[in-house]
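Q: Here's a chain of 104 amino acids. Please give me its 3D structure as tokens.
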Amino acid sequence: MSPAVVAQGPTWYAYEVAEHWRLARETWEIEERGLAPMTLIGTLPRTDQVILAEAYRTGCEVVLTNDLKWVKPKHAKTIAGLGMAAHTPESLVTYLRPWLGLWV
């Protein structure tokens, strides 16, 4: 987990979340992808580069955020170029709504 992500909330919580996802990636055999291509993320603000590079490296498919700039065209295009999607909680629920009944 990047220092930028840890700085956004309580440290103990960030490390619990990081450990949860480390175990999930191990269980689901999701391999780390290495470094994100700087040609894609290099145009974003520095703090966003760090967060997105970490998400890419750890195999994330979706970036869930309340920061609306991540779902605007510039960020969304960059994130899509990395094979990921960006969603707010509301947009993720809307996106998943057709399949939610399968999980309840």
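Q: Can you summarize the key feature?
A: The first strand starts at residue 62 and ends at 64.
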